[in-house]
Prior knowledge:
The protein is mainly beta. It has one domain: Cyclophilin, CATH 2.40.100.10. 12% of the residues lie in helices and 36% in strands. An eight-stranded antiparallel beta sheet has the order 3-4-6-5-7-2-1-10.
Amino acid sequence: MKNPIIKINVKNFGTMTAELYPEKAPLTVANFVKLVESGFFSGLIFHRVIPGFMIQGGGYDETMEQKETESIRGEFRANGFASNDLKHTRGVLSMARTNMPNSASSQFFVMHKDAPHLDGQYAGFGKLTDGFDVLDAIANVETGSYGWYMQDVPCDAVVIESMEIVEK
């Protein structure tokens, strides 16, 4: 069985291609593929960008309206899921969550640089195979605050035009 391959098409930036790893995080990959196939991510933004760390998206639209979906179990070592040994290195896709270990839903992040302190604490589930130039361009956009509660928000929206499964 082949690993799913996705394309993340980002308005005015280009395309990032990633391979997903169901052997590392089966529930996470199944949830992500379901969301991609349903068009969930189209029109959402990368709402948190920290150069030298990561870019995060999949939860808000351009008006900063939150788009939510059901939560899933966090498939990472600190949550009792020992088989996910994916390291948070440059290009890795991982699920964002709150302090609650089983709160991941649709928000994901792409590592701009290595962050070993996240290993075993978040559910890594894929890795970019192409589009590192797009990742770098997004990671270097100008950011600011949105209200009192959200930092590192791009000043100009970084919009996910679409995501697609190109191989399943």
